[in-house]
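pinging the channel bc i need a second pair of eyes. not urgent but kinda urgent?? the chain im working w is below, pasted from the shared doc
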Amino acid sequence: MFVDKVKIFVRAGDGGNGAIAFHREKYVAAGGPDGGDGGNGGSVILRADDNLSTLMDFRYKRKYQAPSGEDGQGKRCKGRKGEDLVIRVPRGTVVRDAQTNEIMHDVSGSEDYVLCRGGRGGWGNQHFATPTRQVPRFAKAGTPGDEHEVVLELKLLADVGLVGFPNVGKSTLLSVTSNAHPKIANYHFTTLYPNLGVIYVEEGVSFVMADIPGIIEGAAEGAGLGHDFLRHIDRCRLLIHIVDVSGSEDRDPVEDFQKINEELRQYSMELASRPMLVAANKIDLLPPESDNLQRLRDYVTQQGYEFFEISAATTEGTRQLMRAVAGKLAQLPPVTVYEPDYVKPLAEAGDAAQLQIERHEDLWIVSGPWILKLLNDINFEDYESRMYFDRQLRKSGLFERLEEQGIQDGDTVSIYDYEFDYTK
């Protein structure tokens, strides 16, 4: 089964908790705190795999979670980091945010993409020892890992896309010009999923061609199979429009050409303006009295397209067509790689009453889900970002709550991995 669009939920591992421990050894009095830090949670990573050609594996498993980091231990032992979860996807998979449908990443290169980052491990009590606080009996909890619901959408990485009505000879052309072996039969919708083939023209000249399942009238509105697979020609630099001129389907070739182009326009105006070559196929079956070939040639050339006569079944004209395709591709830009347009929304202040505040002498530990999200969005090296952080804390009422509980000038406020000196 060919699956090219799925929705999955992914969650990175949580960070392990810091340990509360004290050094105990014979002949060593008051060894002091030695609680280790928790390990970082595992991240969720997407990796392109050229051995995959479908998203079928995701049809049966929709939730993915990386392991959490282990808690810290005594003797300053740090907890083990959670293993990263590597999810392999076909090259050409586009990752979209499930809510906004914005592109987060295009898995077309060789670099791994961190989809969800693991939580940070909490500090052990060894970090909180000071000359005035020699026996800290507290540690920090690990932070939760990121989570996201995304849509994976496969868009084939092909240079050339074959388009046309069902049973016009697209699969046959691919089979006789490449190493691909698509299913071929004399009935409609023989091809139920896109097929890729590599065309070798000559030494150092090759390209990838995709056979897209037959498009019919109304495909852009969901009729037939074309609507499901039109996305796979989004990246194609060049289209080859295959038209049956033999009349074997009792259709007019000029009308076929017009209808397919209209479906492309309805799906995407940008796609409809893509460079296109037109191939009149099945000329070996053309009746002598038929004027289909000449009428199609006249119409196509008037529209400004290059026209070729071929018989995919006998390979007549196919070599010349592939050479023309290679020449055309040499003048076109490379295959499209989609740029991300997803912008993570900035976290905003919540209610200070939702935060947990722990006091340990002159140290105040503040934690809570919304302040963690806010903290992750702040660049403390940037002045404007720091001012935004300060405004959101004041907006939440955190400062008023701290002052009600007795915080003094010079006390330390610890928010996850950051510490601040409090000034009124």
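so Residues 19 and 35 are 5 Å apart (CA to CA). and The longest helix spans residues 253-267. — does that match what u expected or am i reading it wrong
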